[in-house]
Amino acid sequence: MTLSICSSINPPVPLLGGQALLRWIDDGGAFHRSSVLHRQRLQWAAFWFERHLKLTANRCAATDLPTKLIFILGLWRSGTTVLHSALKEATGWETPQTWQCFRPASFLLTTPPRESVTSRPMDEGRIGTFTPQEDEFAALLLGEDSVYRAFIDPRRLTELASLLRQWQEPLSSGPSPLSANWEGFLKGVCRGTKNPLILKSPNHTYRLPWLAKRFPAGQFIWLTRSKQDVLASNLTMWAAMIDRYSLWRGDLRMLEKFLECAILNHDELLDWGEKTIPDRIHIVPFERVMQDRATLVSELLSSLDHPKS
């Protein structure tokens, strides 16, 4: 018996991306869940997405990424969102905003929307139009290989689990985990400023070897949390996001296996990072983020200014 993840009677919220994401969705066949004209809406959005993306890329062609990039890594539900917001508030450095991440092709071509705040699908946290957001949503819509594709089609979690193991392959053996489109989005976020850039995405954890090589001055803040707590919290988070966005029903047992694979590779990557780039890794327990945030931020900023030798 399949334990279905999707229980909502509401239609899924469309994630409107470009042609690469649309092709991946089309490979899934007939939808299990959809609203009227859902596929046509995805097709129309993808048509304009590509045209806007070209205009945005032209605007950012002469923009350089900051030399100082800070990546917040760790498993989902390990406090990365809280720390992302705390560092932004303390420094004023650049971070992708929610509205930018969900309009990665056109945010430079239009005025920002009115500010609004809503609840996150998985907890009581709040998301604002202009609050820091993880760039993984932009990567997803841009067509990058992202495990967040499982939010749309959870039947393919086994296929997407290969992205959790991609770091084990030699960097020269395959395509880059992220493309020029993702970097173009970051350039748009930083356009007009020389501030450092703070990026938060648990998915970047599984791209660490490539990120460390691509951004040799990059620093990595790594949040850790007990396996038992992080697994339980992730089951809730992934189920909620799939319930909100999926076009197909998912299998809870498949999700559990996916998360076990994620935790295993996370632990191996942490070992790799501590051995390979120890001067660029800053490990932070989940409890410190929740209980001692002000002191933690101060200590992190000092460490980022004076990396370990």
Key traits:
309 residues; alpha/beta; Rossmann fold; four-stranded parallel sheet; two-stranded antiparallel sheet; globular
What do you see in this structure?
There is one protein chain. With 309 residues, the chain is of the alpha/beta class. It has one domain (19-305): Rossmann fold. Helix content is 45%, strand content 8%. It has 12 helices and 6 strands. The protein has helices at residues 19-26, 38-60, 80-91, 98-101, 136-142, 157-160, 180-190, 208-214, 227-245, 252-276, 286-291, 293-305; strands spanning 69-73, 117-119, 126-128, 197-200, 219-224, 281-285. Strand 2 and strand 3 (126-128) form a beta hairpin. It is globular, with a radius of gyration of 19 Å. The model has no long low-confidence stretch (mean pLDDT 92).
Shape: globular
Proportion of residues in helical segments: 40-55%
Structural class: alpha/beta
User: How far do the termini sit from each other?
Assistant: 54 Å
Radius of gyration: 19 Å
**CATH level 4 superfamily:** P-loop containing nucleotide triphosphate hydrolases
If you average the pLDDT, what whole number results?
A: 92
Fold-level CATH name = Rossmann fold
Assigned CATH class: Alpha Beta
Strand order of the largest sheet: 4-1-5-6
User: If classified by CATH, what would the architecture be?
Assistant: 3-Layer(aba) Sandwich
Topology pattern, helix = H, strand = E: HHEHHEEHHHEHEHHEHH
The total count of helices amounts to 12
Q: How would a textbook summarize the main sheet?
A: 4 strands, parallel
Count of beta strands: 6
- Residue runs with pLDDT of under 50 for 5 or more positions: none
Number of domains: 1
Q: Report the sheet-strand fraction.
A: 5-15%
